[in-house]
């Protein structure tokens, strides 16, 4: 087994590489995780979940999604604290499942975040086009790509600090949304369409599950995508100060805050809007701009609320792209360090950023440039499906890796007390986490609009295994 130092202290003799720097604090880790999660999945896709699953169904979906994320993060905590490396998921899978699976997981994680870049840039460009209708979507996409590249090509400390404040804007907005929404629900603020306090009548006005129970299962992939990003703590562990102390605290803080934010947001939207009107419209002229956040603020009647909310959502989307580029490029760097990619990908600048890995990863943002030719909503839905499915595969590998890690740890003569962080309720947590993630991944096959992405992801997985074993036999 390779030690953490073998990953974090890649020598400068080859390819001009220097060590990644441990410059992230606990507040950086928490905000990086929150920033990665609060984005498209909450601001834009939450309405789709409500319209499909119904109000109470959506609440249950997000609670289940939060619990799945928490189980996975508990497994990640044990792995990340005992082996705090950049590119962690691939390393964990290589050590505890098999090197071929580790290679596949690394590439799936890279693909997931690379595809996410496309969803964030496309959605942000559509919102910008509402302000400037005569400009092209591809022009805004290009501008956003350049801005995110500049942020990532500076130092890790600068990236972490900028991401902290971008995430802070998102967190503050969600809190304000929930507080103002609750004020409208209880009649303290006027709300369009209601003469008296709407209270929580809309939650059950059409029954608990107006479309049945199946939509709860069918929307779980979108819900899990909303929690996508919490696992960034594991990626950042290799660049975190005092990971033994800060990583566990960041995991607990991030997951529970996300649960409160997401469930609170769904309750507010479902209470104020008829569930049939919460989803995104199919009108291409409006595209993805009909966010339930924008609708609620508009109906409350706050001056310029729509423009303010649109600005916040654009900021949130770019923040998610910013953190996603960071995570994916570190995974590519780790593959290079492990001699599974050419050395050029582990080349770092003097400030410690993997410049080639960052530039190549940005390829995922390029589909946004094709939005006007193929329909922005079509590109968005397919990229979202790919990003969500690949993340489910990574989460499954985390649970499986922790299960095998604990078994090997005890077999080798170690004691539980020797672990710096222990996943509670073993083996229940990793087993249930793996099963629920598997079910979530299979739900993608139930959506006709995502079936092509589902098949594409399976082909990509098979290609990863084939290329690994070809490289392995070639080396030997």
From TrEMBL:
<dbReference type="Pfam" id="PF00324">
    <property type="entry name" value="AA_permease"/>
</dbReference>
<keyword id="KW-1133">Transmembrane helix</keyword>
<keyword id="KW-0472">Membrane</keyword>
<feature type="transmembrane region" description="Helical">
    <location>
        <begin position="424"/>
        <end position="445"/>
    </location>
</feature>
<dbReference type="GO" id="GO:0016020">
    <property type="term" value="C:membrane"/>
</dbReference>
<feature type="transmembrane region" description="Helical">
    <location>
        <begin position="208"/>
        <end position="227"/>
    </location>
</feature>
<feature type="transmembrane region" description="Helical">
    <location>
        <begin position="56"/>
        <end position="77"/>
    </location>
</feature>
<dbReference type="GO" id="GO:0055085">
    <property type="term" value="P:transmembrane transport"/>
</dbReference>
<feature type="transmembrane region" description="Helical">
    <location>
        <begin position="29"/>
        <end position="50"/>
    </location>
</feature>
<keyword id="KW-0812">Transmembrane</keyword>
<feature type="transmembrane region" description="Helical">
    <location>
        <begin position="89"/>
        <end position="111"/>
    </location>
</feature>
<dbReference type="InterPro" id="IPR004841">
    <property type="entry name" value="AA-permease/SLC12A_dom"/>
</dbReference>
<dbReference type="InterPro" id="IPR004840">
    <property type="entry name" value="Amino_acid_permease_CS"/>
</dbReference>
<feature type="transmembrane region" description="Helical">
    <location>
        <begin position="131"/>
        <end position="153"/>
    </location>
</feature>
<feature type="transmembrane region" description="Helical">
    <location>
        <begin position="254"/>
        <end position="275"/>
    </location>
</feature>
<feature type="transmembrane region" description="Helical">
    <location>
        <begin position="348"/>
        <end position="370"/>
    </location>
</feature>
<protein>
    <submittedName>
        <fullName>Amino-acid permease RocC</fullName>
    </submittedName>
</protein>
<feature type="domain" description="Amino acid permease/ SLC12A">
    <location>
        <begin position="28"/>
        <end position="449"/>
    </location>
</feature>
<feature type="transmembrane region" description="Helical">
    <location>
        <begin position="382"/>
        <end position="403"/>
    </location>
</feature>
<keyword id="KW-0813">Transport</keyword>
<feature type="transmembrane region" description="Helical">
    <location>
        <begin position="451"/>
        <end position="471"/>
    </location>
</feature>
<feature type="transmembrane region" description="Helical">
    <location>
        <begin position="165"/>
        <end position="188"/>
    </location>
</feature>
<feature type="transmembrane region" description="Helical">
    <location>
        <begin position="308"/>
        <end position="328"/>
    </location>
</feature>
<dbReference type="GO" id="GO:0006865">
    <property type="term" value="P:amino acid transport"/>
</dbReference>
């Amino acid at each position: 087994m390779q030690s953490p130092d073998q990953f974090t202290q890649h020598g400068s003799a080859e390819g001009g590489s220097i060590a990644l720097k441990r410059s992230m604090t606990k507040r950086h880790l928490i905000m990086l995780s929150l920033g990665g999660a609060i984005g498209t999945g909450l601001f834009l896709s939450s309405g789709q979940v409500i319209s499909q699953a119904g109000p109470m169904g959506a609440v249950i979906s997000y609670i289940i999604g939060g619990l799945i994320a928490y189980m996975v993060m508990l497994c990640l905590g044990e792995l990340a604290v005992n082996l705090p490396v950049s590119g962690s998921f691939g390393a964990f899978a290589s050590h505890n499942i098999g090197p071929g699976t580790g290679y596949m997981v690394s590439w799936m994680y890279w693909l997931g975040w690379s595809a996410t870049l496309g969803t964030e840039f496309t959605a942000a460009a559509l919102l910008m086009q509402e302000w400037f209708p005569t400009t092209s979507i591809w022009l805004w996409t290009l501008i956003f790509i350049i801005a995110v590249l500049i942020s990532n090509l500076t130092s890790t400390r600068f990236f972490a600090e900028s991401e902290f404040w971008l995430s802070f804007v998102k967190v503050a907005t969600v809190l304000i949304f929930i507080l103002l929404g609750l004020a409208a629900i209880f009649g303290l603020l006027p709300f369009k369409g209601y003469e008296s306090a709407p209270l929580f009548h809309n939650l059950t006005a059409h029954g608990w599950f107006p479309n049945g129970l199946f939509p709860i299962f069918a929307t779980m992939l979108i819900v899990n995508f909303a929690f996508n990003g919490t696992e960034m703590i594991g990626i950042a562990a290799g660049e975190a100060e005092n990971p033994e102390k800060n990583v566990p605290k960041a995991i607990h803080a991030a997951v529970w805050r996300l649960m409160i934010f997401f469930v609170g947001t769904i309750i507010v939207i479902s209470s104020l809007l008829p569930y049939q009107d919460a989803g995104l419209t199919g009108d291409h002229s409006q595209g993805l701009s009909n966010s339930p956040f924008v609708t609620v603020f508009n109906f409350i009647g706050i001056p310029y609320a729509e423009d303010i909310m649109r600005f916040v959502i654009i900021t949130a989307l770019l923040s998610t792209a910013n953190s996603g580029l960071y995570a994916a490029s570190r995974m590519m760097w780790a593959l290079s360090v492990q001699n599974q990619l050419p050395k050029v990908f582990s080349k770092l600048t003097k400030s410690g950023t993997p410049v080639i890995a960052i530039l190549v990863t940005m390829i995922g943002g390029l589909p946004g440039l094709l939005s006007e030719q193929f329909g922005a909503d079509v590109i968005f839905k397919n990229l979202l499906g790919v990003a969500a499915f690949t993340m489910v595969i990574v989460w499954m590998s985390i649970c499986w890796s922790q299960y095998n890690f604990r078994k090997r740890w005890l077999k080798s003569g170690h004691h539980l007390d020797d672990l710096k962080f222990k996943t509670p309720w073993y083996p229940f947590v990793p087993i249930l986490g793996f099963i629920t993630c598997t079910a979530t991944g299979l739900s993608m096959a139930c959506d006709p609009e995502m079936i092509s992405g589902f098949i594409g992801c399976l082909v990509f997985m098979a290609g990863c295994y084939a290329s690994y074993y070809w490289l392995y036999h070639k080396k030997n």
